[in-house]
Amino acid sequence: MPPMGVASGMSVKSHRTAVVLIPPPEVWGPIQVIRQQHDRQFRRWMPHVNLLYPFYQQERFAEAASRLAAVCAAFAPFAVTLAEFRFFRHPSGRATLWLRPEPTEPLVRLQAALQAACPACDDQSRFPTGFTPHLSVGQARSAAEAQRLRDHWQARWQPIRFEVTAITLIRRDPNGPFVIDRSIPLAAGREEQNG
């Protein structure tokens, strides 16, 4: 099966769809406390790590899901820990604060394999440093403000550890929040569901 892209008529992407990693809801509490105060996208997005964004339009989810499932079948679940706050500086002078999932290597490998199946969705890897797994928690008006917030949060943070067992396709209506369309389990996750 050739990868989804221009040749298969799949070149149209949407900022209303994404393939993401969503931590389990039972670990959201401390993340949401910060996001509610500091993340202007708090109501639009659930806590997440973008893997492919923007993604294909919702009408293409069934075809995309079968391709992504084939990729996920080759990946066993793995644990990540959200222990360290960092921030990106933007050309505007503003900054985005985020939690770093560790170790990053399994997420980088998973993202690269998903992108290979949907090569038109390469926006996350186009940055000068390539794909950087991150869970955004807020925005700051300056790097100095971001550093102050980062130091404040880091001093009080208790690391959050969870198992990555699936990727999730999400979508939203023009004025609504993102909702889960479907989840695709990683290999061992599929075995557990069937067993």
Low-confidence stretches: 6-10, 189-195
Biggest sheet: strands side by side, in what order?
A: 3-2-9-10
Mean pLDDT over all positions:
92
Order of helices and strands: EEHEEHEEHEHEEEH
Q: Estimate what percentage of residues fall within beta strands.
A: 25-35%
Largest sheet: 4 strands, antiparallel
- Return the structural class: alpha+beta
Shape, principal axes of CA atoms = globular
Helix content: 25-40%
Instruction: Evaluate the radius of gyration.
Output: 17 Å
Number of strands: 10
Termini separation: 29 Å
Helix run count: 5
Description:
This protein has 5 helices and 10 strands; from the N terminus they run E-E-H-E-E-H-E-E-H-E-H-E-E-E-H. The chain is α+β, with helices and mostly antiparallel strands. The strands form 3 sheets. Strands 3-2-9-10 form a 4-stranded antiparallel beta sheet. The chain has a 4-stranded antiparallel beta sheet with strand order 7-6-5-8, with helices on both faces. Strands 1-4 form a two-stranded antiparallel sheet. The longest helix has 14 residues, at 143-156. It is globular.
Summarize the structure.
This protein is α+β, with helices and mostly antiparallel strands.
